[in-house]
Write a structure and sequence with these properties.
It is built from 15 helices and no strands. With about 240 residues, the protein is mainly α. It has a domain of about 70 residues. The longest helix has 17 residues. It is elongated and about 70 Å long.
Length: about 240
Amino acid sequence: MDPHIPTALDRQLTADAQRWLTDAVARVGQDPAAVRTAFPAAGRRCGRGPLADGWTVADAARARLLAALPLRGSALAEEITDLHRYGDAAEQRAVLRSLALLDDADDSFGDLGLPLLCAALRGNDNDLIEAALGPYAARHLDNDGYRHAVLKCVFCDIPLDRVAGIQERADRELARMLADFAHERVAAGRDVPADIWHTVRAHPGTVEASGLPAETESPVPERRDAAVRALAAFSATAPIGAT
């Protein structure tokens, strides 16, 4: 969690909401089972408006409740898994956004949150996919899993700048996969998401290897025009990480 999120939360809470959350955090700290009623109630008691970086007031309040749990390792993972399983989409999003926070606080948590992350990536809820691809995913997804998560975002029209770790973890294989995706789109006469080119440009030769440039000679006007637009966007884009 970005350090400014808790501060933003405190500024947004009414006096009544702040009292409720402070009391709920204390109850959860004394009795982990108390989170099962406090967690779903957080949206109603604290509000659901936006904060920053995709977080809502309810997300941040729920994250504070999870951080108060006096559990570690598998016991913590079991509790948050139940909250995720029985929660609505907003509650599931809060669990996913909190994974990095829990990981930071508990050295034994490790990969125990990966099943929740992978479940979100198998689904089609863009809010959950985006929430899953925060710092926890950047730390714990293996290379193949991370690459496919990025492709999932491309297919779902989720901007890649919302994927944590993209600058550090984008490798040549991911660039190849994105270039192949671009060729498939062009071959269908469709435009290519502009934000894939940052990664592709960082690995020279991947566009050429995909076969995309040859589409500028296609006898099909839609393919030819899509290829010209794609290559123009590619040429105009700086490599990922460039300043």
